[in-house]
Amino acid sequence: MQFQDKTLIEARCINYQQMRNAYADIMENGSVKAAYRTVTNPTNGEIMATNFTGYKRNPSTQIFDAATAKIKSISKDLGMTPQSRAELLDLSKDDDNGDSVKKLKELFG
């Protein structure tokens, strides 16, 4: 395994953990949250009203989306998707003795 592959695998693992943490937060707190604006009396600080302003997206949904996209991209770079494996096999057909095709087939079944 090359150094670059190790770095990509580590990055994939990190993003996978970020995805799982974000998903756990989404399951615990929901993907959206009601947002309110509190109106206070400027003289004594007493709360006069709490107005509903809409819904706010949980920041974990953005983390989840970004981590998922990075995992998909890294998986493709590592040949972990059907399409990327097919591309690797096509590239290896240029090999004169066919050794690289045999090695790829052993790795990816």
TrEMBL record:
Which InterPro entries has this protein been placed in? Phage_term_ssu_P27 (IPR006448)
Quote the protein name from its UniProt record: Phage terminase small subunit P27 family
| Annotated source species | Lentilactobacillus curieae
